[in-house]
Amino acid sequence: MSIEAIWQWFAAPLQFEFMVKAIFVSALVGVVCSVLSCYMTLKGWALMGDAVSHAVLPGVVLAYILNIPLAIGAFVFGLGSVISIGFIKSNTRIKEDTVMGLVFTGFFAFGLVLISKTPSSIDLMHILFGNVLGISEQNLIQTIIISSVTMIFLMILRKDLLLFCFDATHARSIGLNTTALYYILLSLLALTIVAAQQTVGIILVIAMLVTPGATAYMLSDNFDKMTLIAAASGIFSSVMGTYISYHLDASTGGCIVVLQTLLFVMAMIFAPKHGLLVRTIKATK
Amino acid sequence: MSNITVKVEDCTVAYNGKVALHEANLQLNRGSISGLVGMNGSGKSTLFKAIMGFVKPINGHVLIKGMSMKKAQKQNLVAYIPQSEDVDWNFPISVQDVVMMGRYGYMNLLRIPRKNDHRAVVESLARTNMSEFKSRQIGELSGGQKKRAFVARALAQQAQIILLDEPFAGVDVKTEKALIELLVELRNMGHTILISTHDLSSISTFCDDVVLINRTILAYGPTGEVFTRENIARTFDGMVPVEGISNS
Fold first, then answer.
1. In which band, very low, low, confident or very high, does the pLDDT at B243 lie, cut at 50, 70 and 90?
2. Class of A3-284 in CATH
3. pLDDT under 70 in chain A at which residues?
4. Any domain includes B221
5. Rounded to the nearest 5°, which phi and psi values hold at B213?
């Protein structure tokens, strides 16, 4: 492939405004999700992320019906699901993973019923799988605001959240409010899911919230480096995934997540210290 | 100044209506090592939680240097050294990162370390002989070094009271000895140490006091007086688990 062709591959889509917007939004969401994914992987909250992402569905639909920003509806239901999970877990004998499975499918199913009974232009496929190529002005602004707010919180509370993930007992013993940190981290999770819903949809958002962190975790023993690697892999997958989806005329969310997964597989095999290859060589020595 | 650092008075703690600790009384003195002995489920971790201020007693109270728990927390007075199995050793942080976490209570909201924070970390690492391992990821340490890293964090925190949860579980005899030496050093510098352990045979070698717990505090005081066969039998519901305990 000539240089000219490569240039064209990258430049041609940019003549369309929708592609410029899509690449920008995907990159933005990619960064925010990736940074948050470091905390999710270390705290072991993948299932929690999955639960919240499914539970926002009725919120999104109700927001359409009531004509309020989608983000508000999604946030209320995202947080509502978490509070329900916490309540059922501490007041019954049911184990946490069962409670999660029960609550998020219940919320999700309620959302499906709402959609099927709402005579409107809500496109279920767009909610489930994203529609970043057709993102509206209003949703673009919403995504920018949500991403900025989340990033600011993640920056300010970076060290407290890290300590909370590593050793909540110590955090509490020196007077940090761990309950507040728990709910802040959950709120950031809910907000990020709302922001990412446009790009990859609520089914695949969990990949954005787990995979970059896992990839970076394979590659680094230092949290700052891990965050940077995750962010870099997140931006790369988002931008390249959007391009590839344009050229192949394939699902954007799908392309982004496939790329992320490929990056993870490469890191898993070739990581210099924790990779499978190095481990195998060490084991056979 | 009073010599009593921790005072537990008529403390009853319950979870969901189930009493875990009943009318416990206890005093820990400044510059002492106390061994906490009891079976699983005897209320050891509840006592730890009460001293750290994590549970609110339904009766009685806990005072740290005469202060309420909230005040003591704000002053970073109590440090907790977790059991090894409760720590994620694959966590991507280095030894000095962990020790720096002991300083968070003294920092501003962004937790940006200042000169005295860095100094405290360097000193704590030196006092625990961990300086040369400061850049290691925590999982790359030996069992004894792992413990010392957390002791260093307690020192950086300038905690007066250090709680250790089963520090000898899974470490070899040599490491245990070295760790005991370090604890004795800390005691001599005035720290109050409470240590839960299953290793009854080593208690009389380094514990000044013993605290016997079985849903309430059965007895506490100087090891020679309290750590008797009869008391131990009461602690373990009539069974003495290990030989080699003094009859005095």
1. low
2. mainly alpha
3. 120-121
4. yes
5. -130, 135
Q: CB contact, 8 Å: A167 with chain B?
A: yes
Could you tell me how many CB contacts below 8 A there are between chain A and chain B? 71
Average of per-residue pLDDT across B97-126: 96
Residues B104, A163: C-beta atoms closer than 8 Å: yes
CATH number of the domain encompassing residue B71: 3.40.50.300
To the nearest whole Å, the CA of A64 is away from the closest chain B CA by 38
Spell out the residues 6+ positions from residue B14 whose beta carbon is closer than 8 angstroms to its own. B20, B58
Q: What is the pLDDT of residues B133-176, one digit of tens each?
A: 999 999 999 999 999 999 999 999 999 999 999 999 888 889 89
Q: Which residue of A has its CA nearest to B153?
A: A170
Give the distance from residue B210's alpha carbon to the nearest chain A alpha carbon, in angstroms. 24
Question: In this complex, is the C-beta atom of A226 within 8 Å of any C-beta atom belonging to chain B?
Answer: yes
The whole-angstrom distance between A228's CA and the closest CA on chain B is 13
Cβ separation B104–A42 shorter than 8 A: no
Q: In what order do the strands lie in the sheet with B18-29?
A: B18-29, B4-15, B59-64
Residue B62: inside a domain: yes
A179 inside 8 A of chain B by CB: no
Q: Residue B24 pairs with which residues in a beta bridge? A: B11
CB-nearest to B92 from A159, A170, A221 is: A221
Q: Is residue B6 part of a domain?
A: yes
Q: If we measure between CA atoms, which residue out of A63, A60, A54, A70 comes closest to residue A103?
A: A54
pLDDT at residue number B242: 57
Nearest Cα to Cα of residue A243 among A31, A26, A5, A34? A26
Tell me which residue range forms the domain holding B57. Answer: 1-32+40-76+198-242
pLDDT at B240: 67
Q: How many structural domains is chain B composed of? A: 1
Q: A-chain residues within 8 Å CB-CB of B54?
A: 169, 172-173
In a domain, B95, yes or no: no
Q: Please, where are the H alpha helices in chain B?
A: 44-52, 69-74, 95-101, 115-127, 143-156, 173-188, 200-206, 223-226, 229-235
Is the Cβ pair A174, B52 closer than 8 Å?
no
The complex scores an ipTM of 0.91
**Distance (Å, rounded) from C-alpha A234 to C-alpha A217?**
13
Whether pLDDT at B245 is above 60: no
Q: Is the pLDDT of residue B13 over 90?
A: yes
The whole-angstrom distance between A65's CA and the closest CA on chain B is 41
A268 touches chain B (CB under 8 A): no
pLDDT digits (tens, 9 = 90+) for B29-86: 999 999 999 998 899 999 999 999 999 999 999 999 999 888 898 899 999 999 999 9
Choose the mutation target among B45, B67, B104, B146 for the interface with A, i.e. most A CBs under 10 Å. Answer: B104
Look-up of token digits 């007075």: B77
- The pLDDT assigned to B82 comes to 94
**How confident is the model at residue B241, as a pLDDT?**
62
